Each structure stands twice: as C-alpha cells, then as structure tokens.
Amino acid sequence: MPDGIANKPTDWRTAGIRxxxxxxxxxxxxxxxxMNRQVAISGSRTGSSALWAGxxxxxxxxxxxxxxxxxxxxxxxxISGTAHMRWGDRLEFITExxxxxxxxxxPYVPHQEINASATEELxxxxxxxxxxxxxxxxxxxVPVAEPEWVDQSAATNCx
Length: 159
Prior knowledge:
By secondary structure, the chain is mainly β. It has 2 helices and 11 strands, in the order αβαββββββββββ. The chain has helices spanning about 10-15, 45; strands spanning about 35-40, 50-60, 65-70, 75-80, 80-85, 95-100, 100-105, 110-115, 120-130, 135, 150. The longest helix is centred in the N-terminal third of the chain and has 4 residues, at about 10-15.
C-alpha cells in the first residue's frame, strides 16, 4: 500500500475510487470517420496515470475509417451488436466478435471496425494503455477488395 510522502498515510477518500457517470462522457476526443467515440477516463479528465477508457458507437451497416492508435495497445469489448474487424497494411485480414467478446489491438496496427448488422447499432467499450487519446487516421490507405477471414474461434496464445 502506498504511504504517500514519508510515512504520511494516503487519504483514500480523495485519492481512491473515482466514478464517472455515463452522462459525463465527452465527445472531446479525436474523431475517426464513421465512429461516435466518447471518453470517460483519461489523464486530463480524471487524473488517470496509465489508462484511457471510453465507448464508441457505429451505426448499422457502417464502417469506420482506417486508423491506428500509435504506441498504445487497445482493448475493445463488444457491449451489443456484432463487429467485424479488418486489420493489416491494406486491411487484408478480417474477423468477427459478438456481444461479450473482446478484441486486442496491438500498437500501430492499422484497423477498421465494421458494424455487421443492417439494423442494430454496434456499441463497444474501449480501454487503451495510455492516458490520452492517440488516433492516427489513415485516409490514403487503400484496402484489399476481399480480405482473408481469420478464424479465431479457438483461444490462441492463452495460458
């Protein structure tokens, strides 16, 4: 347990848990075409020292623009809907996740989220390994016409 400064006890009332209500999320974060991204937790908003967290929503039958998040690792949790994720230098790979599933996006990986439904909104929770939003949009990336489906139905590299 941290002691604060030289044996001074930590004031957990002010240095402990911080709640952010859903209505307190902000759209004051870099945009990516086709995505409504909102920030809840960040260094500047909440004083987070290691994480950024928020949500995104993608309309039915829509796809985001290609982008990456620089040196940050990202976790995407599918709250509702079905997501197709394309990735690679030309978005040449694709896989699927449904409500309750996660995506792990390594640093610098070009990717694109796609709402697989023609009728339901895709709603996701996002967590990144840094305190501020890094979004590098890739408007000049030309994707392959037919990406290769990658079957990730069996857990891989898990211990």
